[in-house]
Design goal:
Elements: H1 2-25, E1 51-56, H2 67-79, E2 84-87, H3 104-115, E3 121-123, H4 143-146, E4 168-172, E5 175-179, H5 189-201, E6 205-209, H6 227-233, E7 238-241, E8 247-250, E9 270-272, E10 278-282, H7 305-310, E11 311-315, E12 318-325, E13 329-338, E14 371-381
Parallel strand pairs: 1-2, 2-3, 5-6, 6-7, 7-10, 9-14
Antiparallel strand pairs: 1-12, 4-5, 8-10, 8-11, 12-13, 13-14
Length: 399
């Protein structure tokens, strides 16, 4: 009987407390005439868990890929035991121009290596996955078979603008993941901005994924007044892309105004939310490596100085990225995967390996032992929020 009375009193106390808080911070609360005030209660963070997402791009299924690299990367990625996989596109590198069909052996390999090990999967469509065309004759045309293997998007309110096919969002743990289709590019703001605003109200991180980079030093195309401007205006925390067979990370870049890159640099790789969007190119999942344009002495596609000023790290290497996402901290780890280069086998990790520019270009794993090691880490920390209090505060008396 005593226990029942105690429980009832506890319920009454909590209900009274809730009514008091609601009244104190509501629009209808009377303004104090005595100088007393009540601090507003912050919206709660998402649940206190950490979610691990593995990110990979440009993997090694097909005869034109680097199979030893893909095998080592996908094994190392599984060993990190992620909760979800984000693939940035280009699953298959088949050898023939204008293929008539998508061989089942490719799809079976994808199921085994990139589907079965991961409870949740989000896939971006790469140009090599779509039907072949004149400027991409060796595209596999396998997307119709690949797309059903991912986990799909969250349902959205039909009263707001809708994304196109192959686009959408999904909440994964403490983050909203937005997938944007590149072919053809279309400004995602109308359908994506409302979802991001709702995610921010819930305290979620925002991560966007595309196939072609908005910013890269690998093969530079000036997109600062189009794709880069549109993406950065959405104020995401991270933007991932593939397509370039390399790794690049840029310092946070704010909204683009008059074509200017507003950069927040950190030698430690530690940043705060609101510093800007961090753009990362991750295309080292098993495709052959392509040298950066400046290494090829290709002036037309060498990035300008302000883009290099924004660059934090870059490398030619097999790799993948893991994100450990908690409510307060988003921590990224880039895993370098070094494979023994057998000189007498048929595999070569270099794209167009007979080109003379390779005589002076080193790969990240040259001279390093076989194995998996951390290449770099980066971190974004939520800016400190003011603690809430239910106790009225009394201002200092005026003198």
């Amino acid at each position: 009987m005593v226990a029942i009375k105690w429980f009832a009193m506890k319920i009454i106390f909590l209900l009274t407390l809730a009514i008091f808080v609601n009244y104190s911070i509501g629009e209808g609360a009377p303004h104090s005439t005595t100088g007393w005030s009540v601090q507003k209660v912050m919206a709660p963070f998402p649940q206190s868990t950490t979610t691990r997402i593995a990110i990979i791009g440009d993997t090694g299924t097909g005869e034109r890929a680097y199979a030893p690299g893909f095998s080592a990367v996908q094994k190392a990625m599984r060993d990190t035991v992620p909760d979800a996989l984000l693939h940035l596109g280009d699953f298959i590198y088949q050898p023939e121009p204008f293929p008539n069909s998508c061989p089942d052996r490719y799809i079976e390999e994808i199921k085994k290596t990139l589907v079965a090990p991961y409870p949740l999967r989000l896939f971006v469509a790469g140009d090599n996955d779509l039907p072949p065309k004149k400027n991409k004759p060796k595209a596999s045309g396998c997307w119709d078979k690949i797309d059903p293997l991912d986990s799909g998007f969250d349902l959205s309110d039909k009263n707001i603008p809708q994304p196109r096919n192959f686009e959408g969002t999904r909440v994964v743990g403490n983050a909203l993941i937005g997938i944007i289709h590149n072919y053809p590019w279309q400004d995602p703001t109308p359908w994506l901005q409302p979802r991001i605003e709702e995610a921010r109200k819930k305290g979620l991180w925002v991560i966007l994924a595309v196939h072609e980079p908005a910013l890269t030093t690998a093969w530079y195309l000036d997109k600062r007044d189009t794709v880069l401007k549109q993406l950065n205006a959405l104020n995401p925390d991270l933007v991932f892309a593939g397509n370039q067979h390399s790794y690049e990370r840029f310092h946070p870049i704010g909204p683009i105004e008059d074509g200017t890159l507003k950069i927040v640099k950190s030698e430690s790789g530690k940043y705060q939310s609101g510093d800007g969007a961090i753009h990362i190119v991750s295309g080292g999942g098993g495709a052959t490596f392509k040298p950066f344009a400046d290494m090829q002495e290709n002036e037309e596609h060498t990035a300008p100085k302000d883009v290099f000023d924004a660059l934090a790290k870059r490398a030619l290497m097999n790799h993948f990225v893991t994100l450990d996402i908690s409510p307060d901290i988003l921590k990224g780890t880039v895993w370098r995967v070094c494979v023994r280069d057998e000189p007498h086998d048929k595999w070569n990790p270099r794209w167009k390996s007979r080109q003379e520019f390779w005589n002076t270009i080193a790969l990240e794993c040259d001279g390093k032992p076989e194995g998996v090691t951390v290449y770099e880490e980066f971190e974004i920390k939520y800016k400190a929020r003011k603690p809430y209090s239910l106790i009225p505060t009394i201002p200092e008396p005026a003198h």
